């Protein structure tokens, strides 16, 4: 059964909040069944990606190759469960596939693989590469006068990768105003707080210095997310970056801000506790 | 090989394969509007500058950022373009290896990586700019095709052929002029080796600049009563195993010749196949687990034992053992 996309293109905030919660539930469930995977960074970006797929982006789940679609590149590929939950709920594939995450033969690889799963624009997982690919897509679209947009989600630890800044320079040089990067600033990476592992601040002035329009938001406030995405679209002649301040593990109190849930799946007991807390049953 | 063929071939002038690439790309760019060319600040040397001048709207200079160039090429392919990304082989395959692996090959994207300055014939710039591991690095990647043309004529045909093929391709070109070797009526086919002649004593399987060196070696050997054949294995991956097996079955010795490390390149590919399918005496001519160095290209060929005389010596020593 394929679900119909509910792309309202409207700022239906109560609906999007509900969707984001369902996305989080699917993330937790599939990770628990898989027994491994990245919980924290999937939950931290759940509101942003929900806003993109269920409101902002123009896309056709029954026609993943539609030329004029907006593209989403998950540069922080370890948040694959988030992408899978959203794609399934949008109707790209049957939601029952989510329980095959990380299993042999499943198109739901540990990190997204575009060859095997419709809706995944490019294989990611090795950090720092998504923005370059987004640039290429954006340049190609401009060459063909296709006025779609490319959204690229990066992690905050990820921007320690040098290639991100090579790509940042390229996007500004080619005036790629059809690109909107979003940095999920959840403050934690595998080895600990980003500020302790290798500080990235001042993030806003770094992007600004590279020629980007910078928008700073609370990455869990649905209205701020939608407004920022709209605002980014109005800025011409330069790419935009949304710096989304988020909480790692957002949505489950006992995962929030805990670095150990970066690369760990919930146990069945933790899932039960989480669902109870989220007032979801089953 | 027929004398007649060689005579007409020699009427063509020596030309660097990178120059042939620049011409072919320019020509192809007129026919194929989907071609987009990327370079990393070396368009003058890789000869993509010609395309850039003719089609500025379809050329992206990514600056000195090879990893970013590979990613950008991937994105262009995903937008339905046919990207050709060029820089020096050592940077294209080394600096950006993991980008080629993750973004191009794993996703199986239609990106053409055409690198110049392969091998020690780069000359004076020295080891930092001489790719001697690139074939090994590209050959190990699933979905990748690896091609090393022998002369200008073959290069032109390779560029046309890969434009019509869907999937990742790595083409290794050289900086220095190479003499014409392929017959005037030669037609390149991906995955098909060209046999100049088969030898009853030895067959030299060569690529790139070493094809002309191998032909010269075969002439010397003929004068000394040793029947030597020469095969241009321009597609290193997928290897033309049929041709290889046929010649291996009818001679005493196989010699591989490449301007690359003897580890992992053509010598590696041929050894892997023959040792499993038809063990035969085999010698690999190439860089013996060493880096290149500065010097004139012809001096370096001597220094690293890549001349016709070196091939002859290896063959005679082996056959006499």
List the helices and strands and how they pair.
The complex is a heterodimer of chains A (282) and B (321).
Chain A: H1 13-34, H2 40-44, H3 46-56, E1 71-74, H4 80-90, H5 130-143, E2 150-155, H6 162-173, E3 179-185, E4 188-189, E5 192-193, H7 194-198, H8 203-209, E6 213-218, H9 222-234, E7 240-245, H10 268-277
Parallel strand pairs in A: 1-2, 2-3, 3-7, 6-7
Antiparallel strand pairs in A: 4-5
Helix pairs in contact in A: 1-3, 1-4, 1-10, 3-4, 3-9, 5-6
Chain B: H1 3-9, E1 15-16, H2 17-31, E2 35-39, H3 43-46, H4 49-54, E3 59-61, H5 66-78, E4 82-86, H6 89-95, H7 97-105, E5 112-115, H8 134-139, E6 145-147, H9 152-163, E7 169-172, E8 177-178, E9 194-197, E10 202-206, H10 210-223, E11 228-232, E12 235-237, H11 241-248, E13 253-261, H12 266-277, E14 281-287, H13 297-303, H14 308-320
Parallel strand pairs in B: 2-3, 2-4, 4-5, 5-7, 6-7, 10-11, 10-13, 13-14
Antiparallel strand pairs in B: 1-8, 6-12, 9-11
Helix pairs in contact in B: 2-9, 5-7, 10-14, 11-12
What distinguishing features does this structure have?
heterodimer, A: 282 residues, alpha/beta, Rossmann fold, five-stranded parallel sheet, 39% helix, disordered N terminus, B: 321 residues, 2 domains, seven-stranded mixed sheet, 14 helices, 19% strand, globular
Structure description:
The complex is a heterodimer of chains A (282) and B (321). With 282 residues, chain A is α/β, with parallel strands linked by helices. In chain A, 39% of the residues lie in helices and 12% in strands. Chain A has helices at residues 13-34, 40-44, 46-56, 80-90, 130-143, 162-173, 194-198, 203-209, 222-234, 268-277; strands at residues 71-74, 150-155, 179-185, 188-189, 192-193, 213-218, 240-245. In chain A, strand 4 (188-189) and strand 5 form a beta hairpin. Chain A starts with 12 loop residues before the first helix and ends in a 5-residue tail after the last helix. Mean pLDDT of chain A is 95; it is low at 1-8. Chain B is an alpha/beta fold. Chain B folds into two domains: 11-178, Rossmann fold (3-Layer(aba) Sandwich); 194-316, Rossmann fold, CATH 3.40.50.920. Chain B has helices at 3-9, 17-31, 43-46, 49-54, 66-78, 89-95, 97-105, 134-139, 152-163, 210-223, 241-248, 266-277, 297-303, 308-320, and strands at residues 15-16, 35-39, 59-61, 82-86, 112-115, 145-147, 169-172, 177-178, 194-197, 202-206, 228-232, 235-237, 253-261, 281-287. In chain B, the strands form three sheets. A seven-stranded mixed sheet of chain B has the order 3-2-4-5-7-6-12, sandwiched between helices. Chain B has a five-stranded mixed sheet with strand order 9-11-10-13-14, sandwiched between helices. Chain B starts with a helix and ends with a helix. The A-B interface holds A 67, 71, 113-115, 121-126, 129-141, 143-144, 162-163, 166-167, 169-170, 173-174 and B 36, 57-58, 60, 62-63, 65, 67-81, 83, 98-99, 102-103, 106-108.
């Amino acid at each position: 059964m394929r679900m119909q996309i509910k792309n309202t293109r409207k700022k239906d905030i109560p609906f999007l909040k509900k969707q984001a919660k369902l996305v989080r539930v699917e993330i937790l469930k599939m990770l628990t069944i898989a027994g491994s995977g990245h919980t924290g960074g999937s939950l931290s970006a759940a509101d942003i990606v929900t806003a993109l797929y269920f409101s902002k982006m123009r896309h056709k789940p029954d026609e993943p190759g539609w030329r004029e679609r907006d593209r989403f590149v998950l540069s922080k590929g370890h948040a694959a469960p988030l992408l899978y939950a959203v794609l399934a709920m949008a109707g790209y594939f049957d939601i029952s596939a989510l329980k095959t995450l990380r299993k042999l033969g499943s198109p739901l690889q540990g990190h997204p693989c575009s060859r095997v799963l419709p809706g995944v624009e490019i294989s990611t997982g090795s950090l720092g590469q998504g923005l370059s690919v987004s640039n290429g897509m954006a340049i190609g679209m401009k060459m063909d006068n296709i006025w779609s947009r490319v959204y690229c989600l990066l992690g905050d630890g990820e921007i320690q990768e040098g290639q991100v800044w090579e790509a940042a320079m390229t996007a500004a040089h080619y005036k790629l105003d059809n690109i909107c990067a979003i940095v999920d600033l959840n403050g934690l990476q595998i080895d600990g707080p980003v500020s302790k592992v290798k500080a990235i601040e001042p993030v806003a002035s770094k992007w600004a210095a590279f020629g980007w329009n910078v928008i700073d938001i609370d990455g869990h406030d649905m209205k701020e997310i939608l407004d920022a995405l709209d605002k980014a679209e109005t800025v011409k002649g330069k790419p935009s970056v949304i710096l989304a301040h988020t909480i790692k593990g957002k949505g489950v109190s006992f995962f929030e801000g805990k670095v150990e849930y970066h690369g760990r799946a919930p146990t069945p007991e933790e899932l039960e506790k989480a669902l109870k807390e989220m007032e979801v049953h089953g | 090989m027929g004398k007649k063929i060689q005579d007409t071939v020699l009427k063509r002038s020596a030309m660097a394969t990178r120059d042939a690439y620049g011409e072919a790309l320019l020509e192809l760019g007129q026919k194929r509007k989907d071609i987009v060319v990327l370079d990393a600040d070396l368009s003058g040397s890789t000869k993509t500058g010609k395309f850039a001048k003719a089609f500025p709207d379809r050329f992206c200079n990514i600056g000195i950022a090879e990893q970013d160039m590979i990613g950008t090429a991937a994105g262009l392919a995903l937008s339905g373009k046919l990207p050709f990304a060029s820089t020096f082989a050592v940077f294209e395959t080394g600096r950006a290896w993991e980008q080629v692996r993750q973004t191009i090959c794993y996703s199986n994207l239609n990106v053409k990586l055409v690198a110049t300055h392969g091998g020690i014939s780069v000359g004076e710039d020295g080891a930092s700019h001489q790719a001697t591991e690139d074939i090994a690095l590209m050959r190990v990647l699933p979905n990748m095709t690896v091609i090393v043309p022998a002369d200008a004529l073959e290069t032109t045909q390779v560029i046309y052929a890969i434009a019509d093929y869907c999937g990742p391709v790595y083409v290794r070109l050289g900086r220095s002029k190479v003499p014409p070797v392929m017959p005037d009526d030669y037609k390149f086919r991906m995955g098909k080796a060209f046999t100049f002649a088969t030898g009853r004593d030895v067959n030299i399987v060569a690529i790139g600049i070493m094809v002309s060196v191998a032909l010269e070696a075969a002439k010397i050997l003929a004068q000394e009563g040793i029947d030597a054949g020469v095969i241009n294995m321009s597609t290193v991956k997928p290897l033309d195993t049929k041709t290889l097996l046929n010649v291996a079955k009818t001679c005493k010795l196989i010699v591989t010749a490449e301007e690359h490390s003897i580890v992992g390149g053509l010598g590696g590919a041929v050894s892997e196949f023959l040792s499993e399918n038809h063990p035969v005496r085999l010698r690999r001519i190439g860089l013996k687990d060493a880096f290149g160095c500065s010097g004139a290209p012809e001096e370096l060929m001597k220094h690293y034992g890549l001349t016709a005389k070196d091939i002859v010596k290896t063959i005679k020593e082996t056959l006499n053992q």
